[in-house]
Amino acid sequence: FTYWVDQDKKNSEEYILYFHQSGLGLPDRDYYFTEGEKFEDIRTKYVEYMTKILELAKDKNAVEIANTVMEMEKALADNHWTRVENRDSEKTYNKFEVSKLSGLSPKFNWLLFLDKAGIAKAENVIVRQPSYLAAFSNVLSKYSIDDWKNYSKAKLISSNATELSQDFVEANFDFYGKTLRGTEVNRPRWKRAVSAVDGSLDEILGKVYVEKYFKPEAKDRMVKLVDNLIISMEDRINKVDWMS
């Protein structure tokens, strides 16, 4: 699963911890179970991709690990909510007291996890897919510690493949670029570098950009423009009976 802090959707004055289903290397659950040549080919090439990056990392058990990772992801995907279900803002708003998480996933040590993640002070959390976390507990105990270590290793390599040497970059693009998205040519390295920096330092870059290109006088002009728009809109609304 993944987690982040955001405004409580039902209390905008407070921030709260959100938990969301995760753990898959393919876009969503449908890619693991939909029949047909297209999806079967994607699943085959995904295992080949995982094997390739593990081999590049000098793992002697690359084939075995790649197949086990696929099996583990299928077990997780089997309990993932669909895209339609995830768009339901009410069903995905499930507030839990932290002390109650153990009842949801009894085989996962939530208090230890929150402590090691540096968020032990959280009192309440939002679990977007409660049934997934409940099933995750069973999947967790189904596989060995070594399986989870290998799963984590494969995920770590894959998630950083675009920042590693060129052979990793090419393996990652062959699958995620060509196979999944149908993109034939990867972007130039400088463009990928700019995207990486922008994605990691967006707020800092934004501050530098504003200081250089958005001078105080430009801000004053925009404030006046917005003020004039508000006055104009207010005047128009007051002249429309059903809106005033």
Automatic annotation (TrEMBL):
Residues 1-244 form the Peptidase M13 N-terminal domain. InterPro entries: Peptidase_M13, Peptidase_M13_dom_2, Peptidase_M13_N. GO terms for molecular function: metalloendopeptidase activity. GO terms for cellular component: plasma membrane. GO terms for biological process: protein processing. This is Peptidase M13 N-terminal domain-containing protein. It comes from marine sediment metagenome. The lineage of its organism: unclassified sequences, metagenomes, ecological metagenomes.
